[in-house]
């Protein structure tokens, strides 16, 4: 199997993420990019959803505190909005939505998620995005304090990718490319 980048297939523009859900955004990207080549096209959208914030930052995770905002500013906004909120009300989840398409047709969709809490403060230097404030109970610490390999084994992306991997193995093994 060979992986190609968007640049490899001549995609020179980003697809605007104008969907209201991770699934809508992943579909938009997968369908648009799959129309540029004959190849299987995998797209994803992902982010953090905090229950107390009615699912925010959600699809705005990367730009929660404004377009092009750095991770630190997004983290500080979440912590500020949850200041004084008791632990039991700080439930959150990371969500990843994968969509596989070919020639403008969706073949498969998978969702992965991991549940945790928004920590009271930033902790650790591992990972990226909201990892330093996402407390994962089974590890007893924030993802920001967990090495990448350990986090990836339970992460929202890791869970979605495991499902997609199984589908792709069956798809590629089938004689006519249909499953």
Write a brief structural summary.
This protein is an alpha+beta fold. It has a single domain, classed as Maf protein (Alpha-Beta Complex).
Description:
The chain is α+β, with helices and mostly antiparallel strands and 179 residues long. The chain has a single domain (7-173), classed as Maf protein, CATH 3.90.950. Helix content is 26%, strand content 23%. It is built from four helices and five strands, in the order αβαββββαα. Strands 1-2-3-4-5 form a five-stranded antiparallel β-sheet. The two termini are 18 Å apart.
Secondary-structure blueprint of this entry?
Blueprint: H1 22-34, E1 41-50, H2 71-81, E2 91-102, E3 105-118, E4 134-136, E5 141-142, H3 148-152, H4 156-173
Antiparallel strand pairs: 1-2, 2-3, 3-4, 4-5
Low-confidence runs: none
Separation of the first and last Cα atoms? 18 Å
Structural class: alpha+beta
Can you count the helices? Answer: 4
| CATH architecture identity | Alpha-Beta Complex
Instruction: State the helical fraction.
Output: 25-40%
Subunit organisation of the chains:
single chain
Q: Tell me the series of helices and strands, N- to C-terminal.
A: HEHEEEEHH
Instruction: Indicate the CATH topology.
Output: Maf protein
What top-tier CATH class fits best?
Alpha Beta
């Amino acid at each position: 199997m060979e992986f190609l980048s968007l640049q490899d297939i001549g995609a020179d523009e980003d697809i605007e993420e104008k969907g209201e859900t991770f699934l809508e955004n992943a579909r938009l990207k997968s369908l648009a990019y799959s129309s540029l080549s004959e190849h299987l096209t995998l797209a994803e959208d992902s982010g953090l959803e905090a229950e107390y914030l009615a699912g925010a930052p959600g699809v705005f995770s990367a730009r929660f505190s404004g377009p092009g905002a750095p991770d630190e500013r997004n983290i500080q906004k979440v912590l500020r909005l949850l200041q004084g909120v008791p632990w039991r009300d700080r439930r959150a989840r990371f969500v990843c939505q994968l969509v596989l398409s070919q020639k403008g047709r969706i073949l498969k969709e998978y969702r992965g998620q991991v549940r945790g809490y928004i920590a009271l403060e930033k902790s650790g230097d591992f990972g990226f995005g909201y990892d330093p404030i996402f407390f994962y109970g089974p590890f007893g610490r924030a993802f920001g304090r967990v090495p990448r390999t350990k986090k990836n084994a339970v992460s929202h992306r890791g869970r979605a990718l495991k499902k997609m991997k199984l589908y792709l193995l069956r798809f590629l093994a089938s004689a006519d490319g249909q499953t």
